[in-house]
Write a structure and sequence with these properties.
heterodimer, A: mainly alpha, B: MetI-like fold, two-stranded antiparallel sheet, 1% strand
């Protein structure tokens, strides 16, 4: 085996792959061991969920005795009220993601296409806001919502507490910071000739934004949209703080109560946990590239 | 930039109104739901209040801080746990993610499958991570004790229940998620490193380790900064997982969890909770300011 690298290989940057196949055995062993360890908790959940409690009571959880079926999933779905919780998640996630993308695209357009004295100040404020631990502002937000009186036809608590609006508003406010940061970098990278040409044609600011810049940002929206769906679906804290009625919780926060609902029936708990994993897993499998692009978009500049 | 200047001058009145609205609406939302509450937190930390009637708010000076530091038993354990969380993520979870990225950056067979496996936990909420690991750690029926051969015996450990070990168990669960995230960012970073740098190092006779630590790793400086910031902020934000396990008590105290324990439920002590929140804010501002000066410092000078 030669360590001399041919120039053509260098150009393609493949020297690490081709010339030293021996080293990859070690790599594969490390990766395999880690991959198995990585899959154990999820695999254990899934395995437990597939087994009826009669079987695990008789044979113990650490056994391979059948039968295996999906009964626990059906029972957990019905007893746990998952259809309700998933619907609550949709009710919160869809408006929050759309609002976040829309508002941050407005902001990003304004700060990236027009040079204005306070651009950097505003961007810093937005980005910093996204990085704060949510617990820092929990008390004032809770009290603000509690002391804001609303008519009862609008909210049965008479305040903003226990409403989806409270969660959507705060989720949106928190996520605008990150999306504005990413989108403004994306828009800055677009050539300013594009809007110049539109300007010559007499297009106003809104048309430049809506008909020229927005369509060009589709890849960024796809990536950010996927990311934000996962972020907001996975948000545990704000619904925990604002929503008191158990039947209004989104699924991520509701799993906190599942341990009480299913008592010590670990098979049902495992099925419940697995059900909660499924939507994110589906999004991941379908939109993996978008999700990864979204995560790295945010860090590519720093 | 001359082109931008020209554009600004050509804005019509209508354009100016549109642009103002574009900036004003998101800024207002950001101020009302993020920055005003942050200021209120600082304000409330200097008061005594039960959270019921706004007219009951009484000034209290620094007494809440004094109480937290001197008389509030879970405070110092929580600080220690937050520090431990940071150290563990920084010394174990983050390097593990870097190792995964370096291993997977070689063109090996099945790289994408490995990536998907290591990345899968990043998709899950930390609350769900807590539930899944609860099943794994459970004393009598959890997989870990079966693998250790202690399940069902008196020696079996309740990994999330025993206050001597539960912080470590929670940290391993948090690592499960954090490493995948770090791996992903470093994979992107490694792809961005100019291949000619490695070639130059190889031609100079550097071995793989030298090439990595002296050439490749320093070349990923922007990503390194992002990861340092993410690691610090994650350790300050840690909350969901301990809250799901036992609401952040009995060995799992974290500052973030103490904030919430003082705000909701029985005997609301808003002042004390806000003092804890303000302490958390001040600590958080260190990595945030560091990140912002790195990111925006150059641009601020240019404009």
């Amino acid at each position: 085996m030669t360590t001399v690298i041919a120039p053509s290989d260098l150009a393609r940057g493949t020297e690490y792959a081709g010339s030293r196949p021996k080293r990859h055995i070690g790599t594969h062993i490390i990766l395999l061991v880690l991959a198995v360890m990585w899959l154990l908790p999820l695999g254990w959940s899934l395995y437990t969920a597939l087994r009826p409690i009669e079987s695990t009571n008789q044979n113990g959880y650490f056994s391979v005795a059948g039968p295996y079926n999906f009964d626990n999933f059906v029972t957990a779905w019905n007893q746990g009220g998952f259809s309700k919780y998933f619907w609550n998640s949709v009710t919160i996630t869809v408006p929050a993601v759309l609002l976040t993308l829309f508002l941050s695209s407005l902001m990003a357009f304004a700060v990236s296409r027009v040079s204005w004295k306070f651009n950097i100040t505003l961007l810093i404020m937005f980005t910093a806001g996204n990085l704060l631990p949510p617990q820092v502002l929990a008390a004032p937000l809770f009290q603000m919502f509690k002391h804001l009186n609303l008519p009862y036809w609008f909210s049965d608590s008479g305040t903003l507490l226990n409403t989806y609006i409270s969660v959507i508003a705060v989720d949106t406010a928190f996520q605008i910071g990150f999306c504005t940061f990413v989108l403004s970098n994306y828009m800055k990278a677009l050539s300013s000739d594009l809007t110049e040409a539109a300007l010559v044609d007499g297009a106003g600011v809104w048309r430049q934004y809506w008909s020229i810049i927005m369509p060009l940002c589709r890849p960024a929206f796809a990536a950010l949209g996927t990311l934000e769906v996962i972020f907001i679906y996975n948000d545990f804290f704000w619904p925990l703080l604002f929503i008191q009625s158990g039947d209004r919780l989104p699924v991520t926060t509701a799993i906190n109560n599942l341990q009480g609902v299913f008592l010590s029936n670990y098979n049902l708990l495992a099925a419940g946990a697995t059900i909660t994993v499924i939507p994110t897993l589906v999004i991941y499998l379908l939109l993996q590239r978008q999700f990864v692009a979204g995560l790295t978009l945010g860090s590519s500049k720093g | 930039m001359p082109t931008t200047r020209r554009k600004v001058r050509r804005l019509s009145r209508q354009d100016k109104i549109v642009l103002t609205a574009m900036v004003a609406i998101p800024t207002l939302i950001e101020l009302v739901f993020v920055w005003l509450p942050t200021l209120f937190s600082i304000g409330l930390s200097l008061t005594r209040w039960n959270g019921l009637d706004l007219t009951d708010i009484r000034p209290a000076g620094a007494s809440n801080y004094q109480f937290v530091v001197e008389d509030y038993p879970p405070f110092w354990p929580a600080v220690q746990h937050n520090v431990l969380w940071l150290v563990f993520l920084a010394l174990i979870a983050t390097p593990l993610g870097l190792l995964l990225a370096v291993l997977l950056d070689q063109k090996i067979r099945g790289s994408r499958i490995y990536q998907s496996i290591f990345f899968a936990p990043v998709m899950l909420s930390l609350a769900l991570v807590g539930v899944i690991w609860q099943l794994f750690y459970q004393r009598d029926h959890g997989l870990l004790n079966f693998l250790l051969g202690t399940a069902g015996q008196p020696a079996a450990v309740d990994w999330f229940g025993d206050s001597n070990v539960n912080i470590w168990a929670a940290l391993i669960a948090a690592t499960w998620r954090h490493s995948g995230y770090v791996m992903l960012l470093y994979l992107a970073g490694l792809k961005g490193v100019d291949p000619s740098l490695r070639e130059a190092a190889a031609l100079d006779g550097a071995n793989a380790a030298q090439t990595f630590f002296r050439v490749v790793f320093p070349a990923m400086r922007p990503i390194n900064i992002v990861i340092v910031v993410i690691t610090i902020i994650e350790s300050l934000r840690a909350f969901d997982i301990v809250y799901v396990i036992n609401r952040g008590t009995n060995g799992l105290e974290l500052i973030s969890a103490l904030v919430i324990q003082n705000l909701v439920g029985e005997g609301q002590v808003i002042g004390v909770g806000s003092a804890l929140a303000t302490i958390l804010l001040v600590i958080s501002l260190v990595p945030i300011v560091f990140y912002l000066t790195r990111t925006f410092g150059k641009e601020a000078k240019e404009s």
